Amino acid sequence: MKATAMSSKLIKGAALAAALLLTGYWLGAGGWPFVSHPKYLASTAAAQEPAAGRKVLYWKDPDGKSDFSPAPKKTADGRDYLPVYDEEEPAIAAAQRVKPRSKGKILYYRNPMGLPDTSPVPKKDSMGMDYIPVYEDEQQADSKIVKVSLDKIQRSGVRTEIVDSRGIARPVRAVGTVAHDESRLTIVAMRSDGYIEELFVNRTGEHVHAGDPLFRVYSPEIISAQIDLRVGNAEQRLRNLGVPESHIREVRTGKMPMSLVWPAPVTGDVIEKNIINGQRVKAGDELYRIADHSRLWVIADVAESDLPAIKLGTHATVTVRAYATQAVEGEVTFIYPHLRTETRTGRVRIEVPNPEGRLKVDMYADVIFQVGLDEQPTIAVPASAVIDSGARQVVLVAKGEGRFEPRPVKLGRRGDGYVEILKGLAKGEEVVSSATFLIDAESNLKAALQAFSQPEAPK
User: Fold this and answer.
1) Which CATH architecture best describes the domain 172-180+293-371?
2) How far is CA 429 from the centre of its chain?
3) 146-166+377-453 belongs to which CATH class?
4) Does the model's pTM come out above 0.90?
5) What are the backbone dihedrals phi and psi of residue 437, each rounded to the nearest 5 degrees, phi first?
């Protein structure tokens, strides 16, 4: 009898234990997850009043459903939603198999399919996929990257180039005028009064060689000096009067010519003639001006903004309209120290050879200065790689796998299709050199979508 009663009690106890075990299992696996877990019990107790000093990210459904709230809330049957604190988020993220939390706080949750849809709290899309948390540091990094499909890159002809150092030579264009080389001008004048008895060069523009006769002159002062030479060996007086050595040697032989032939002192073209036959001339009068045109000057008018690039010795190519296919090479020998107020241009002097006499004074000339040839190589990129809005200049740095980073840069000199980078790029980086419009459009679209989808800050 006792054995039967004891057996009955054991059966009832086992049934009760089994029922409790099954109930606990159902609670843990069914609608009330983690109900027997100490953390759940603690969180349930704290649901009514969040702990002081702890930051609540959001409130979740107490039954574990995919229902969240940014503010305290109750279920349909009156139970409080459970607070989720900042330090609990990594465990939840791991349980949901989302990306582990990196440094920084969660800003919002984005659509897993990349649609412009965000949520301030965890959420699922129409297919049951969890929204992906966006962290503060990820937002800062991703906001700078533009992603373009590899297929679109290939179809659009996107090309890249490695950033390297190179010399930048750029042409500076100017207009100029051919002028006399002032160092090759000679004036013919007498140092005594006299009378012109005969002219041998009586036309402006005649070409003379050194020693050719220009005119015959009678000068009383020169005759007096000749007599002194015969009497007192006064050769220096004749030299002081500018008498040619050939005439002095003639007088020394015993001759006493009453006039002398004045020779041309240099080879060149007579550009001015201020003498006629029978004219009385005074000491110091300019009788002829002779110019040596074997070398000439070209005076170029250079824009004020281009003047800093021009230096002494800068190579220049000169082309005159009369010989458009026969350029002449020269170099800068002087930069004038003032500007022309009317045109805001500076004058630059170029010396050019003229052995065949093709260049004529006052011809118009087109000048191209090749600046930067003697400067050190510098970091440069193709000019097509720069997106210039006027106020801001940007290049697109290739990061691989269709990712590009818009990078602001500071520009310097331009030339040969390249532009100097003063700040913003390092040697060895890779930049987009063609089809930048495509990635720039993607960048603008991304910025617009971010501004559209960014959640509003709480007021």
Assistant:
1) Beta Barrel (2.40)
2) 16
3) mainly beta
4) no
5) -60, -35
